[in-house]
């Protein structure tokens, strides 16, 4: 104070300073501090640096050598007491630096430094003063964190650390962080850890505002758990004086006394950080090894605090009734004890914890959502902590409490207003106990508590007896489950355990069929009450329900009882309700009628969905009308007035049920016949009315809402309705239209008569039809479907000449939009509309979908003009593909539906094997042959459509033919990829030779002819036409795919021709030579390496032709003039070739017919051999030079 210059220089101020200095000079402590501050600190700093260097060199072992202290005659304490301030400071610094050097050495046990200076309490004040001044004057040499760490190893270290931080409060964070970071994982396992805990706790008591930050640091670093617990308890106690004055008695248990002890410890045990969970659980386990009465344990303090909370909660109970204000706190406390028992293996004390816990568990909470949660937690605690009912008295209390829950469950469910009550959990536990699924009970409890519960199965014997004998017998459980009301608006967002869980597990264990309790109505009502997002248990519930209908419970199962399937009337009652007016994002509580479009009437909405079988339609005034029988059946089903929470969800679940049922029935037909059981089979009439494609598309778009249903639904559809799961349908996106324009009044009338009239005038007035089609494109698909009948019935009007391509393309887009709604009905209507009219005027039967599935070639029996209209041919190819798939699936299902059990004789004459397995193999072969026959016939018809007609050799006809050929080749390519056997069959059947080049160049998958190596088989056939076909095919394949395998096949073809030339007769030899010359030229062009074999073969051709010519009459003079005609034939062929084709050589038969009148056949053949030889040499040489 005397060294500070005053700001006020008045006489009064100077006099006041003198008085204060006079008073301070009379205090001994002040004089000693002034003496310490008067030391020469720069010189001392130099010596301290030398001392540190010496300690680094010598370590802590040599305690005699020191730079700061020399000639120490007496003991350290005596020297400190008798020395001047400078020597005192040097003595203290020497001792601290020695400790700092010694603690750096590796040691196994905690190091404690015995020092007279620190051990004697009488020096504590002076040591504190000297230490604080040294730290203040030498901050660079004495970091507070390192000094604090050294002080922990001397007596009275925590006190000195506290005084040091009190004099330098700015170093609080540095000191605390250093102490925590260097602390142990378990701070109560060693003396050093206890000292560290004591020091940090004292610092936090000095600065309570930083206590929670220090606790967070402990958790983050996973160190000193005891300190974290003590800080939490201290924070709760320090808050009691502040909050206790303004809180009520009922809420004081947690607000005034507890702080966040329960939530904090629960959060540590249930943390997402595995390292933190393990760290705190280990703290609890190691704390139990000490005696319970040991007060130094943080775990003891924590358990004492929790026990006190239990007592305080039970103080407010009257007649075992828990007040509403305490329910949430009691639930949290029970959950904490469950976590301590399950995750940290805490053993409850008989006299201090078990009785209090059971008394709290068996309280009667109020009927509220919090009360339901408290009861559920209490039930789970009885499972997770079986030691609560280890005595008979406790077991009796638990049994009475569970009986009270069963009696009050309905009241709780009604009064609390929550969808999930503890009744479902009670029922589910009873079911698992009855079927000995104890692991499932533990999983159930773990899911309810949100933690992994570890309980041995043999410890659950008492609680199992209570459930299975005292409260729930098996018959009571089954009867009670049916009476439980379904969950209204069931979706994945509803938490807890619901009645659907109970019914699912009872169905899985076959308890309903065992006690002959019908469950069909309950499942049907729950399906109708389901909403989005779909609850994950619903698909599993349907699966076990279907199993209980078809499969027996045991392996024999002859006397088993089975559940009843859902009737077709009940299914149609749901499907009769409109799905197009339902918004997918609405919650289940919104009524479906509110989301309906305002511009559509109720009758329109109900009529849109119903897709009726084609056999019941009759043509009237140009469009299809439903028959009265279908209307009456639908009206009767819709009169059931089934309440449906979400129409789309219920229909998807019922569709999944139907597909799964049929799949299960077909896969187990053998077992059903062996057991002489007849199960219900849903009619194809029912499936024909379901909007399967629309439901599937919706589920695909909203997969987040149907997470557990979409994948199994697609799997079943691919098996039973592959025609609805084509890749192009998944990839196709309809052109977008402005939805807001769809509700505007159109400029043209959009009724069936107007559509029919516009399509009839398509050639004369295409503009009107184009405007109408544009309006149709803007309509939603469900509104557009009302005009599907006139759109498909008048499709042949678009085949008239003069219809613009824009009209055809727009019509195809509209057809594809309709295809996304009711595709199967649309396909049948389109096939019916494309059939040619009977020229004899006879009436024919209207085709149904079943007719076309039995004979898919109905699709190709359409008007011949379709094969020159590219947009409509694309639709025909699409329908052909889907109906071939449908036929294949239908035949497979028929075989599954009618398996062969036994037969008196074989289907094949002369066969002695009459086993059912052999008969099944025969049926499978016949089915495969029929499918291949249908598919090959379709390919042959399409190939014939690619033949060029006379009027298509030039102009627009050639361009149209080129597009048609491209569409056909694309279809054939996909067909060959799906079934390579089909490619082999088609080529073994053969097709016109002028199409070979088209097929090889236009069908990329033709390379399989080389890879599968079936051309040699074709060359071996005893049919000369097939052999020539194989040679020509080899030539084109060689030009398209010049590979080593193609070279081998080409060499085989040359050898085959040479062999045939030597064994056939005169006419056959001439035919072979005439037909194979262009093919040999093509082979030579592709493979110059075969030029020697080809020249040798041509020489043989020439010799045979010369010899044959010598035997015939002499030719006329100048007969060589036929060569000019041959050149003209080649030029004509070049003029009419396609853009993507090479010039095809003239057909030998055609040239022969035109030239035979001029010269003898042998002479013209000889001339062609010479011309082929020239071309072969030229082409092969050019290819050789190119490579």
Mean pLDDT: 79
Count of helical regions: 60
Major beta-sheet overview: 2 strands, antiparallel
What integer value in Å does the Rg equal?
48 Å
Q: Which of globular, elongated, flat, extended, rod-shaped describes the shape?
A: elongated
Measured as a percent range, the helix fraction is: 55-70%
Class derived from helix and strand content: mainly alpha
Number of E-state strands: 2
Q: Unreliable runs, pLDDT <50, ≥5 residues?
A: 240-257, 581-639, 738-745, 903-911, 1118-1125, 1135-1144, 1148-1158
Task: Report the span from N to C terminus.
Answer: 106 Å
Largest beta sheet: strand ordering: 1-2
Strand content: under 5%
Family: Belongs to the Integrator subunit 2 family.
Keywords: Nucleus
Protein name: Integrator complex subunit 2
Pfam family, one: INTS2
